[in-house]
Amino acid sequence: MTTTLLFTLLLALYGASVPAPGAAPAGGFPAVRPLPAPLSVARWWDPPPTPYAAGHRGVDLSAPAGAEVRAVGPGRVHFAGPVAGRGVLSLTLPGGLRTTYEPVRPLVAEGEAVTAGQVVAVLTEGSHCPGPCLHWGLLAGEDAYLNPLALLPRPTPRLLPSTPDTP
User: Fold this and answer.
1) HEC profile for 1-65?
2) According to the model, what pLDDT value does residue 106 have?
3) pTM for the complete prediction?
């Protein structure tokens, strides 16, 4: 009884969280991870209650300095250069979205077209995390910050068989 109930609950949750077949991801384009799998989140997206309040307008992904950073979708380089002493790369994506990576050494120039999965930067040392990490932000319009993880396809849950040793 408990196993059937748990399985039914998992199926319901899975159905509620997965888009219909053929549905586009949040950005309307097939997005790729900005860093190699598996992604390890050092700090989650924490949107501010108002546009100018404190909050975390992106996610911090743990990765070693020197890691290749990839364009999550097709687009054009909006900005590539230093801001407040650290390297920043912003890409304009389809649907009026803009994604930003920092601290990085950009490998592309402003105005250049990029493809999804193209290596566009190299992660550099930063001071906003305890260890090296990539700050990945997503902006819609001029001031609507979004969770960049929403661009990525959701993982497919897997049920594993239980063993006599596990409850």
Assistant:
1) CHHHHHHHHHHHHHHHHCCCCCCCCCCCCCCCCCCCCCCCEEECCECCCCCCCCCECCEEEECCC
2) 98
3) 0.76
